[in-house]
Amino acid sequence: MSSIRLFILGSLSQHGELHGHQLRLLAEEERVHMWTDISVGAIYGAIKRMAADGLIDVVRTEREGGYPERQVYAISMSGRRALDEERREGLEQVHLKPDPFDLALTRLDRTRLDDLQPVLEGRLVALKNVLADALAAHQRAAPHVTVSESWALDHRTHRIRAEISWLEALLAGLPELVADERARHGNPDPLPESSPRSPNTG
């Protein structure tokens, strides 16, 4: 499932023929970067790929004032079939990407276990700042978004809150985690900066 393809095909289906700049303006107007993984700047490249794949057709070229010529696109029959598929997959499929944090958590530097709490506390502060920014942006956008877009924005804040709740639980359980790491691996002293551990020692 491709978010940017769903956005372009859905926009052409809903609004009719558009050129690339109009699609970019529409993405900015709908603030899609706030609640999707779409980069507004990637729209032009996606348009070219989709035209090459036959999902959209160039219907004409037009010029406005002193601006360069712009190609105007319409959704093709293949594009309409792809749009149906993208909509269905977007609603049905569950997308929960693995977080690199989890791998790092299982590969801790056992010489720096005492540093873990401040690192996690810093991460918690950063997440709370992300939540505050998201809530403020949601409030600013509220007068301009549809009901469905409001639900999409709310989904993002719920996911951030869940991440914050999980991290707070991890901090509460940190003594047990550190004790387990030390019990399984011993409790080596931190290595001096001038004396790196040999690759052949564990």
UniProtKB/TrEMBL annotation:
Entry keyword DNA-binding: yes
Keyword vocabulary terms for this entry: DNA-binding
Protein name: DNA-binding PadR family transcriptional regulator
Transcription regulator PadR N-terminal domain segment(s): 8-84
Any one GO molecular-function label of the UniProt entry: DNA binding
Entry-linked InterPro entries: Tscrpt_reg_PadR_N (IPR005149), WH-like_DNA-bd_sf (IPR036388), WH_DNA-bd_sf (IPR036390)
Pfam families per record: PadR
Listed PANTHER family: TRANSCRIPTIONAL REGULATOR YQJI
Entry annotated with the keyword DNA-binding: yes
Positions of the UniProt region annotated as Disordered: 181-202
